[in-house]
């Protein structure tokens, strides 16, 4: 085989004197980018997340639920067990205190508006919103829309970043996304993935309409947190997951931002 054929596709040969000068040539400065870690000189999402994560909050809820439909109250074996120890079973009309946690996102700091899931604050008697810097505020429910699983809370106006919405109609399968929230009550957590599908239906008996499917990890406690694009804009509000053990298996769902915005305008009485 000719020598030219052996060298096809290989880098051109460089004389030793030129090799030395090429090795010592200064590296070009990186292009200014929100995804470049200046002090490390490598790509990173940290600069973007430093900007957006202060807008993501934890939502703690205290609610009271009726014991009327509790299965133990209608179970004869359970009642017999209580009678053996002379324990009076609770009356069906009694209320049980329940504590739960979820996530939310500040969309208007000047007005103190926070979005979360409608199911997170269901039957809520007391709602507390905690920021990343650990400031906590009592929240008031402004509106709740079960059809989109979105709720609007109001806290006091504050100095904090808020996030803009992206056009969810422009999303395509393969777009990179980040999910931010409070999974299992651990505290703020960021996961990454792609848009796995758009317009996904048939979830939760189809009561939530068309959803964004993503493989960014969404777990219990992530509900109400944002799904954002790489510009730091909200493309969806995380709402559900499919997992045989209750944890993430790479199939999570978010309410598209365009539907969220329409629901918010209705709840605020805006056009």
Instruction: List the uncertain runs.
Output: 1-25, 27-32
Query: How are strands sequenced across the largest beta sheet?
Result: 7-6-3-4-5-9-8
CATH topology of the largest domain: Thrombin, subunit H
Mean pLDDT: 81
What would you report as the Rg, rounded to the nearest angstrom? 26 Å
Query: What spatial form do the alpha-carbon principal axes imply?
Result: globular
Helix count equals: 5
The counted number of beta strands is 15
Main CATH class of the largest domain? Mainly Beta
Output the helix-strand order: HHEEHEHEEEEEEEEEEEEH
CATH architectural type of the largest domain:
Beta Barrel
Helix content: 10-25%
The portion of residues forming beta strands comes to: 25-35%
Decide which structural class fits the backbone. Answer: alpha+beta
CATH superfamily of the largest domain: Trypsin-like serine proteases
How far from one another are the termini?
A: 75 Å
Give me a quick take on this structure.
The chain is α+β, with helices and mostly antiparallel strands and 271 residues long. Helix content is 15%, strand content 34%. A hairpin with a 4-residue loop joins β1 and β2.
Task: Summarize the topology.
Blueprint: H1 3-6, H2 16-23, E1 36-37, E2 42-43, H3 46-52, E3 56-66, H4 76-84, E4 95-108, E5 113-116, E6 124-130, E7 136-138, E8 140-145, E9 150-154, E10 176-181, E11 189-200, E12 211-214, E13 226-228, E14 234-241, E15 252-256, H5 257-268
Antiparallel strand pairs: 1-2, 3-4, 3-6, 4-5, 5-9, 6-7, 8-9, 10-11, 10-13, 11-12, 12-15, 13-14, 14-15
């Amino acid at each position: 085989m000719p020598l030219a054929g052996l060298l096809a596709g290989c880098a051109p040969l460089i004389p030793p004197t030129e090799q030395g000068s090429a090795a010592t040539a200064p590296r070009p400065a990186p292009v200014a980018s929100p995804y470049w870690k200046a002090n490390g000189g490598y790509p990173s999402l940290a600069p973007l997340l430093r900007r957006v994560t202060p807008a993501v909050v934890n939502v703690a809820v205290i609610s009271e639920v009726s014991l009327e439909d509790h299965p133990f109250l209608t179970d004869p074996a359970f009642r017999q067990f209580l009678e053996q120890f002379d324990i009076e079973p609770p009356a069906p009309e009694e209320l049980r205190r329940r504590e739960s946690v979820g996530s939310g996102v500040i969309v208007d700091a000047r007005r103190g508006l926070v979005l979360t899931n409608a199911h997170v604050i269901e039957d809520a008697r007391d709602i507390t919103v905690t920021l990343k810097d650990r400031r906590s505020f009592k929240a008031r429910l402004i509106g709740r829309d079960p059809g989109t699983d979105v709720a609007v809370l109001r806290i006091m106006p504050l100095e904090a970043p808020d996030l803009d919405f992206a056009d969810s109609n422009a999303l395509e399968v393969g777009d990179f996304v980040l999910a931010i929230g409070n999974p299992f009550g651990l505290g703020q957590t960021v996961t990454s993935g792609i848009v796995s599908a758009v317009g996904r239906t048939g979830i939760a008996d189809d009561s939530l309409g068309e959803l964004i499917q993503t493989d960014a990890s969404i777990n219990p406690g992530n509900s109400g947190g944002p799904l954002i694009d790489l510009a730091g804009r909200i493309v969806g509000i995380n709402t559900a997951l499919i997992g045989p053990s209750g944890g993430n298996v790479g199939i999570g769902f978010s309410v598209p931002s365009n539907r969220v915005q329409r629901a918010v305008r209705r709840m605020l009485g805006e056009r």
